[in-house]
Amino acid sequence: MIYLDANASEPVRPAARAAVLEAMALVGNPASVHGAGRAARRLLEAARETIGSAINADPAGIVFTSGGTEADALAIHCLGHGRRLIVGATEHDAVRAAAPEAVILPVDGNGVARPDRLEALLANGPPALVCLMLANNETGTVQPVADAASICRRHGALLHVDAVQAAGRIPVDAASLGATSLALSSHKLGGPAGAGALVLAPDAPAGPALIAGGGQERGRRGGTPALPAIAKARPASAAALAGLRDAIEAAAIACGAQVLGARAPRLPNTTCLALPGAKAETQVIALDLAGIAVSAGAACSSGKVSRSHVLAAMGFDALAGEAIRVSLPWSAAAADVDAFATAYAAMAARLGAGRLAARAA
Ligand code: PLP
User: Fold this and answer.
1) Which of 7, 152, 284, 326 lies at a C-alpha separation of 20 to 30 Å from 22?
2) Closest CA to 245 of 322, 344, 332, 164
């Protein structure tokens, strides 16, 4: 199996696997005062320091959660308290479901949020919490978050940034982004599923916890932290994947595919390929039969394939049902690209898709 679905879950890195086993050998609970508890606490605090220095954030502002979904929900619950919500049109369901009443901030045809629209939305009305993701999970589009942060500051608004797909793939510097909070997720960084973090800026207002429990994480998130999953969650770099991603795109374009969102800054590992005339589900199944794992849009929910709100917001109504997401993991190699190119060309020829488009172009 050639795994090209890293945005659903990265393969666990060997160092993270070793750290999980090491952490599981510890018997203590980080909240206990005895020696075993203190050893667990040391590991927890070391992970907090490592993440803080990797993304230039104050470790004291890092709240460990069960994953990205909880980090987004916690941000909206805690920072959105008493504020109106404004949410980017291409945000992940983790944000959308936690902010069902939010006003939508539109994006352009490449999936980039429009600063003028943000200005207009913030110009009138009570204080707001804006949610704008750093990188999109379906297209890889990178948002101008630092610009949005300064617009928000000018209008007294807070900014929550879902950095789940960005961390580990592009440099993330929390201090220079200037957001109020960032969400991270371990299994998108090559760690195991079951851990994530909300990274709060030093000036983030205190708000109510989503889960109060026993007051862990300085009262900001109750529950015993998942130490083995947290132990080695650290962003690496995926810059080297851009060349492989470009080769995948070239192979697909030669078969008549279109790259959606190609004109915006993007993650180096992600491409959204629409093949006119071929249903996304059919493509995913055909590639799976050829031993290639990709997905149709955001496949991190229940495995269902539903209409992509991301591609719809970018104006791709017809092509949305014909687009697949290819997302390269940290372990991808040139041979994976060759295998993809062969399988994709065979699929496009068999489905008779894209060829008309290729001839017309
Ligand atoms: N935010 C984005 C952009 C995502 O892509 C995902 C998962 O795919 C999440 C949040 C949810 O993260 P988790 O699976 O850790 O709950």
Assistant:
1) 7
2) 332
